[in-house]
Write a structure and sequence with these properties.
about 325 residues, alpha+beta, Uridine Diphospho-n-acetylenolpyruvylglucosamine Reductase, domain 2, Uridine Diphospho-n-acetylenolpyruvylglucosamine Reductase, domain 3, 3 domains, five-stranded antiparallel beta sheet, 17 strands
């Protein structure tokens, strides 16, 4: 049983009741959460996490929400947002970033400091914490070479994973998943020529589309994960498979696959969660019928059969 009074005494950050979740997601779809908390710092987040874990109350941790699809009936539990975990420190080639730091902000700041080495890490994630979770969910993990350590909340205690512990993996799934609090990176100093070449290369890569509504409408993050690359074969992206099935721009109700990126879904203004799931079903059936592959969701469903993901930052 949750005591609202006890919760307000324990957590310093703002707490709201029956908070609509749609505005916190890329697709702008979703009902309310029982509680919505924005911890002021890492310690505040740990206190909130421990409280709900102790009482067995469903919860999940939210980053920018670009890969989140919330049912219209909402989520019967608590959302803990990392919005205020935004500390970013650059000291020479060393960089420390809290879990809630935006990946575009991190990329911009290290570029301005003439640092390189981030590569494609986090291109499809909203926050540092989300990028680390996403990397660990992929086949074999794809932690970047520039990553030196990760601070996590594991089994109720904060720990710094580095060296062998880091390579053993961050627990990004299941009830015992780590809560990522922040990370440390070591980048390399770029020469003027290297910086120019990097900026030119970045401009040639299709940029991560914004979470905020644009010309097409409210936009999700990537819907499907890229299939694993088999030995001796060339990898193919989920977007390329969807393109081959001519799904770019395909519409179901108020939702459609983006005209710019087939692996993203657009809310044209009146989309429901069912419209989005119908598109997901259509894509999976089309790709399986043509290529014999079963696409795995990267989109995270909340309020369907999920009672709270204890750790994953979305």
């Amino acid at each position: 049983m949750i005591s609202t009074g006890e919760l307000f005494r324990l957590v310093r950050g703002p707490i709201t009741v029956a908070e609509p979740l749609g505005p916190y997601t890329g697709l702008r779809i979703g009902g309310t959460a029982d509680y919505f908390i924005k911890p002021r710092d890492r310690q505040d987040l740990c206190r909130a996490f421990g409280y709900f874990r102790k009482h067995g109350f469903p919860f999940f941790i939210l980053g920018r929400g670009s890969r989140l699809l919330v049912h219209e009936e909402g989520f019967r539990g608590t959302v803990i947002a990392t919005e205020y975990l935004d500390r970013l420190i650059i000291d020479g080639e060393q960089v420390e970033a809290d879990a809630g730091v935006s990946m575009p902000v991190l990329a911009d700041r290290i570029s301005r400091a003439s640092l390189g080495g981030l590569g494609s890490f986090g291109r499809w994630a909203g926050t540092v914490g989300g990028a680390l979770c996403l990397a660990e969910r992929k086949e074999g993990g794809e932690l970047p070479e520039c990553l030196e350590w990760v601070d996590v909340l594991r089994n109720g205690r904060t720990r710094r994973l580095c060296n062998g512990e880091l390579h053993a993996g961050i627990r990004a799934r299941g009830a015992e998943a780590d809560v990522i609090l922040g990370a440390g990176f070591r980048f390399h100093r770029l020469s003027g020529r290297e910086r120019h070449a990097l900026q030119k290369a970045d401009a040639a890569v299709y940029p991560d589309l914004p979470v905020d509504p644009g010309a097409e409408g409210a936009l999700s993050g990537r819907v499907f994960r890229d299939p694993p690359i088999l030995p001796g074969q060339t990898g193919v992206s989920a977007g390329e498979l969807l393109d081959a099935c001519r799904l770019r721009g395909k519409r179901c109700g108020g939702a459609s696959f983006s005209e710019l990126d087939a692996n993203r879904i657009v809310n044209r203004g009146d989309a429901s969660s069912i419209d989005v799931l119908n598109l997901v079903r259509l894509a999976r059936e089309s790709v399986h019928a043509r290529f014999g592959l079963r696409l795995e969701l990267e989109l995270v469903l909340v309020g369907y059969n999920m009672n709270g993901n204890h750790g994953a930052i979305i």
